[in-house]
């Protein structure tokens, strides 16, 4: 009788530090300083922080999107990081390319990065044919149609170009594209950025539902506390490159250990006050 194979966590970050190289007169800058966390298989970690907190840099690193030869690319300068069992601090180009095939990446403003001359269906299918040029087109079409339905878009969307879609629709196409290769890990950097406020809850709900259905692990960056609460109980709060709160969202906000977390907790409490109540600020 064979034992089930125990897969390692999706992400294990141990005291990692990340910095950008010096560029001309611009000195080298630390983006992340001593960050430690783990994402188990099938779990979602919501990452909350204001602009400049380092959360987008961390997303880029996790998605193996950093190019060690590029001057403007972030580099891990301390600690260790394993993504899907692969150590990536000194990863070579070949292993990085293979790892990227197992990660779905939704960069900030992804909907605005869709190729203008490709239809939504072609954009979603593109990663399939980039991996296998001989992939059956009918089967690819079925995969795309399934994803279009999963992100709650009409089937007619497949034949539309980006300029014919709303920002929210383009963002849903970008999410579908990121999931078309059935990745083990989804890294989504502020997936509601640039989307009308009325459409944002639906995008967060879609990611949450797809994660439950497809059982991938997820690292989702946001700057909105309400989005975190609708996405995952597990939260990591960042401020100026450091982790200032981590764990169950209720416990973290109930016992803030940093001024930024205290501000978030007060904001949450105020938002929960009934409209008819009087608040003395």
Descriptive keywords:
281 residues; alpha/beta; Rossmann fold; six-stranded mixed beta sheet; four-stranded antiparallel beta sheet; 9 helices; 10 strands; disordered C terminus
What does this structure look like?
- The chain is an alpha/beta fold and 281 residues long.
- It has one domain (11-271): Rossmann fold (3-Layer(aba) Sandwich).
- 34% of the residues lie in helices and 23% in strands.
- It contains nine helices and ten strands.
- The strands form two sheets. Strands 6-7-8-3-9-10 form a six-stranded mixed β-sheet, sandwiched between helices. It has a four-stranded antiparallel β-sheet with strand order 2-1-4-5, covered by helices on one side.
- A hairpin with a 2-residue loop joins strand 9 and strand 10.
- Helix 4 packs across helix 5.
- The model is unreliable at 273-281 (pLDDT under 50).
Tally the structural domains: 1
Query: Low-confidence parts lasting 5 or more residues at pLDDT below 50?
Result: 273-281
Mean pLDDT: 88
N-to-C CA distance: 65 Å
Output the structural class.
alpha/beta
Spatial shape: globular
CATH architecture: 3-Layer(aba) Sandwich
- Beta-strand content: 15-25%
Radius of gyration over C-alpha positions, nearest whole angstrom = 20 Å
Q: How many strands in all? A: 10
CATH homologous superfamily assignment: P-loop containing nucleotide triphosphate hydrolases
Sketch the major β-sheet: 6 strands, mixed
């Amino acid at each position: 009788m064979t034992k089930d194979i125990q897969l390692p966590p999706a992400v294990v970050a141990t005291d990692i530090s990340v910095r950008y190289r010096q560029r001309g007169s611009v000195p080298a800058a630390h983006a992340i300083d001593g960050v430690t966390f783990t994402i188990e298989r099938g779990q979602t970690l919501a990452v909350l922080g204001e602009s400049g907190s380092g959360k987008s840099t961390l997303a880029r690193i996790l998605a193996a999107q950093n190019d060690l030869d590029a001057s403007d690319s972030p580099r891990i300068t301390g600690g260790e990081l394993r993504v899907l069992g692969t150590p990536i601090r000194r990863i070579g180009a070949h292993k990085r390319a293979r790892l990227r095939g197992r990660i779905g990446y939704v960069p900030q403003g992804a909907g605005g990065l869709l190729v203008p001359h490709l239809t939504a269906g072609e954009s979603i299918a593109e990663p399939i044919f980039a991996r296998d040029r001989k992939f059956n087109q009918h089967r690819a079409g079925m995969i795309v149609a399934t994803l279009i339905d999963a992100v709650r878009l009409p089937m007619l969307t497949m034949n539309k170009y980006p300029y014919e879609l709303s920002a929210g629709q383009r963002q849903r196409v970008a999410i579908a594209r990121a999931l078309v290769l059935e990745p083990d890990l989804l890294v989504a950097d502020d997936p509601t950025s640039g989307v009308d406020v009325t459409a944002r809850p639906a995008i967060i709900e879609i990611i949450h539902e797809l994660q439950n259905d497809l059982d991938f692990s997820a690292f989702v960056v946001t700057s909105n506390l309400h989005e975190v609460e609708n996405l995952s109980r597990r939260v990591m709060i960042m401020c100026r490159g450091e982790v200032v709160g981590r764990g169950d969202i209720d416990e973290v906000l109930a016992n803030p250990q940093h001024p930024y977390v205290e501000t978030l907790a007060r904001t949450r409490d105020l938002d929960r006050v009934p409209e008819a109540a009087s608040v003395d600020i």
